[in-house]
Specification:
It contains 17 helices and 13 strands. By secondary structure, it is α/β, with parallel strands linked by helices. The chain has a six-stranded parallel beta sheet with strand order 5-2-1-6-7-8, sandwiched between helices. Helix 7 packs across helix 8. It is elongated and about 85 Å long.
Length: 385
């Protein structure tokens, strides 16, 4: 697999770092999860399936677990010995914490010049907000992303997906791959300062158009992505379900309105998004209300239109194409799980069935580092691991 031979020390928790580490493990990297005596918070967060939370299963599979007290000098030394023979370190502590523990980039670099050290944080290692704690929702709020999700009364609605977290993990993986590629030529690693807000903001090159060009926030009712376009919108069906039209290009407008015997409205689809398209939205609203979601799904299938039925998460999970693609698969224990989304024709990734209990791999890792049985027993007795 593509990352075979790469060793990763993962100090991160919750979603961004663990998601990134999972993708690396799926493609052959050895990922060692460094856990405190309390352990990864997601081990018991949410419903359990055969002793492991679904959250844990979908972010921590394929990783080894080393329980380690990093506030103890012996624990720090164990970490540093592992770092000497590793390629990547991931941490998600608040800025300055790893340095105070003695395991920051400069300390590791002194013992392994090729290390690629990726620090994940809400607001970055520098700047006036660096020490402010936050999770995904705060990042979406401060980047303006949350303001674009409005419910009734134009109040911000809670986001459907942890976009800030996943943006951070995904772009951090891109950075790590760049650093690994560069290290092949120079032999030298690097430090990555990856911020949740930086990552999410960079995903909005189109959304910030009004801000850059007109020095104002977007008027959502006039924007294609937020309800202004009749053919990029949500419509209720006769059974109180919903259908979306998800493509406002004129070929889709023409195809649907011709099929619905209303070619006279095609010209309205060419008008600017917003109030000018109100007659077309009214027609579509009334039309979709005449049949059930399932009926519309069947009718629209061959009309050459960008559309989709709005499924709940369970219905979406049950769609056959997810299994055809392998993004939903079944592990050796018979439990379905998310597969790997990065798909190569050659050397494809493979999700592991390994689900390590807290500290399950500690003995083997210590032995690999040269600690004999009495030394390992002494470390356990001292509360180091």
């Amino acid at each position: 697999m593509k990352l075979e031979g790469i060793r990763v020390l993962d100090l991160s928790r919750f979603l961004p770092g663990p998601y990134m580490g999972l993708l690396m493990a799926d493609h052959g990297a050895e990922v060692i999860k460094i856990e405190s005596f309390v352990g990864e918070p997601t081990r018991h967060l949410g419903p359990l399936i055969k002793g492991h939370s679904a959250y844990f299963r979908n972010t921590q599979r394929g990783k080894s677990s080393l329980r380690l007290n990093l506030k103890d000098a012996q624990g720090v030394e164990i970490f540093m010995r592992l770092a000497e023979e590793s390629d990547v370190i991931i941490d998600s502590f608040r800025p300055g914490v790893v340095d105070r523990l003695g395991i920051g980039y400069e300390a590791v670099k002194a013992r392994n010049a090729g290390i690629i050290y990726c620090s994940l944080s809400a607001f970055g290692q520098s700047g006036s907000l660096a020490q402010r704690p936050s999770h995904d929702l705060g990042g979406q709020a401060l980047t303006g992303t949350l303001s674009l999700m409005q419910g009734e009364g134009r109040e911000p609605a809670l986001p459907a997906s942890p976009t800030a977290d996943v943006a951070l993990g995904s772009l951090a993986l891109v950075g790590i791959m760049m650093a690994l590629y560069r290290r092949e030529k120079t032999g030298t690693g690097d430090f990555l300062d990856m911020a949740m807000t930086d990552s999410l903001m960079s995903w909005n090159p189109h959304i910030v158009s009004n801000v850059l060009a007109e020095n104002r926030a977007p008027e959502l009712e006039r924007e294609r992505l937020y309800g202004g376009a009749a053919f990029y919108n949500v419509y209720a069906t006769a059974d109180a379900r919903h259908i979306v039209l998800s493509g406002a290009e004129m070929n889709f407008v023409e195809n649907l309105l011709t099929a619905l015997e209303r070619p006279d409205l095609i010209a309205v689809g060419r008008l600017p998004w917003g109030p000018d398209q109100a007659p077309l939205k009214a027609f579509l609203r009334d039309t979709f209300a005449t049949r059930t979601m399932q009926e519309w799904d069947a009718w629209l299938a061959d009309k050459g239109v960008c559309y989709a039925p709005v499924f709940d998460l369970h219905e979406a999970w049950e769609q056959p194409y997810l299994r055809e693609r392998g993004i939903v698969e079944t592990g050796a224990d018979g439990v379905e799980r998310l597969g790997t989304p990065v798909r190569f024709r050659h050397e494809p990734g493979q999700a592991s069935d390994k689900l390590s209990e807290l500290g399950a791999d500690t003995e083997a890792l210590l032995e690999r580092l040269g600690y004999d049985a009495p030394a390992r027993a002494g470390l356990r007795a001292a509360g180091v691991c």
